[in-house]
Amino acid sequence: MDDATIRFTVDGIEIEAVAGQTVIEACDAAGIYIPRLCHHPDLAPAGQCRVCTCTINGRNGAACVTPAMQGMVVENETKPLNDDRRAIIEMLFVEGNHPCVYCVASGDCELQALGYRLGLDAPKQPYLWPGRPLDTTHPDIILDHDRCILCSRCIRASRMEDGKTVFGFEGRGIAMRLNVDAQGGLGETQMAAIDRAASVCPVACIVIKRDSYKVPNGKRRFDVSPIGSDIEAKRMPRT
Amino acid sequence: MSLLDIDERILELADLVDLDRSPFDDKKAFDRPVDVGFIEGGCANEYNVRTLRDFRRHCRILVSVGACAINGGVPAMRNTIGLKECLEAVYLGGPTLEGGGMIPNDEDLPLMLDRVYPSHEVVRIDYFLPGCPPSGEAIWEGLSALLTGREPALPYQLFKYE
Ligand code: SF4
Ligand code: SF4
Ligand code: FES
């Protein structure tokens, strides 16, 4: 074992990481899926949603922002952690407007897919039905605030990948909202449909016009297999 | 209607259950307690609430079936707009209206609720079968589990919100 190799266990399975990797990155490479929502492999981690919370050396922490360390003991697939994750997903469902029945992202949506994976049959909290605007000012992109789960992926992609500042948050707590850097809506920003920010949204908040239904319902990513199964497949043949 | 998608298993079902009250027999009111009730649709007016409470009172196990029962579905599109605005848009501002129009107000019409509510926000619900509609397979899985004393658990391919 060279010095740069970090070894730690996740649910009793020993895995290896290289210095600088976070827990979630090391687990992804090792074929262990930790549920996540705000994390995107191409973007800097934000630790925003807490879905990836694991018990790390006895304390709960977000796996996407915790560096891998020698000998750490990580618990991931436990009932209490999955119950908490389901509760976060539930809250996101009731705090926004998520009618999957007539949503363009259905079958391809990470929020919905986590609901499926975590067995969320119905939220226990009351729906809030907030009134949120629909921004159709851009010729190629719709911004449907009903669906926004405030993951900040678009903010990070716009700043770091596109070199723009199209998106930001305003307000706090339940009043927090995504906004764009122009009074007149998305159409007045520098946003282009080919921007990275346009393709990282995990739900149907940023939707490219004339691009939906290329893959029909029933054949989309998470219609076919549960979220995370691509990562878990890396671990599969253990003979 | 999705219940009919269980196809020939409907014969098996007929052997297992006594159907008490359903759209098939058009029975209007409960006259005895039943073991399992399936409720579909959300509550948009006070008549829906009365029906749902009646089901809760008479069913030992009550199952919320489908997206409308679970999250209000398409009727709940009005929830973010507001009842008044919605009625005015349809009955006072509709493009096909002639001579002004008026918002219906008749004692025979059930009172609309301020919002469309999912079933579990009105009464206690024991189990949920998501989907729009849930497939025949999902309904059969849920039903046969309840009839044989198993906990209903839908396999991944049947667990859908749409
Ligand atoms: S964004 Fe996802 S969770 Fe929300 S309505 Fe669309 S498919 Fe459902
Ligand atoms: S628009 Fe999409 S990517 Fe941006 S914060 Fe909302 S959910 Fe996240
Ligand atoms: S994925 Fe780690 S906090 Fe969101």
Hetero groups: iron/sulfur cluster, FE2/S2 (inorganic) cluster
Number of strands of chain B: 5
- The average pLDDT of chain B is 94
The fold-level CATH name of the largest domain in chain A is Alpha-Beta Plaits
CATH fold-type name of chain B: Rossmann fold
User: Strand portion of chain A, in percent?
Assistant: 15-25%
* Uncertain spans of chain B: none
Subunit arrangement of the protein? heterodimer
Rg of chain B is 18 Å
Task: Give the beta-strand count of chain A.
Answer: 10
Number of domains of chain A: 2
What characteristic shape of chain A results from the CA principal axes?
A: globular
- Kindly provide the name of the CATH class of chain B: Alpha Beta
Structural class computed from helices and strand pairing of chain B? alpha/beta
Q: Radius of gyration of chain A in whole Å, from Cα?
A: 19 Å
Mean pLDDT of chain A, to the nearest integer, reads 96
Unreliable stretches of chain A, pLDDT < 50, 5 or more residues? none
The largest chain-to-chain contact, stated as pair and per-chain residue counts, equals:
A-B, 27 and 27 residues
Number of contiguous helices of chain B = 5
Order of helices and strands of chain B: HEEHEHHEEH
What is the count of distinct domains of chain B? 1
Textual characterization of the structure:
The complex is a heterodimer of chains A (239) and B (162). Chain A folds into two domains: 5-76, Roll (Ubiquitin-like (UB roll)), CATH 3.10.20.740; 84-213, Alpha-Beta Plaits. Chain A has six helices and ten strands; from the N terminus they run E-E-H-E-E-E-H-H-E-E-H-E-E-E-H-H. Chain A has helices at 23-30, 79-95, 110-117, 153-161, 221-224, 229-233; strands spanning 5-10, 13-18, 53-56, 59-62, 73-75, 134-135, 141-144, 167-170, 177-180, 206-208. Chain A has a five-stranded mixed beta sheet with strand order 2-1-5-3-4, with helices on one face. Chain A has a three-stranded antiparallel beta sheet with strand order 6-7-10, with no helix packed on it. The radius of gyration of chain A is 19 Å and the shape is globular. The relative contact order of chain A is 0.15. The mean pLDDT of chain A is 96. In chain B, the strands form two sheets. Chain B has a three-stranded parallel beta sheet with strand order 1-3-5, sandwiched between helices. A two-stranded antiparallel ribbon of chain B has the order 2-4. The two termini of chain B are 16 Å apart. Chain B has one domain (2-75, 112-158): NADH:ubiquinone oxidoreductase-like, 20kDa subunit (Rossmann fold, 3-Layer(aba) Sandwich). Chain B is elongated and about 60 Å long. At the A-B interface, helix 3 of A face helix 3 and strand 5 of B. The complex binds iron/sulfur cluster (2 copies) and FE2/S2 (inorganic) cluster. One iron/sulfur cluster is lined by residues 148-154, 178, 200-201, 203, 205-206 of chain A. Chain B: Residues 1-146 form the NADH:ubiquinone oxidoreductase-like 20kDa subunit domain.
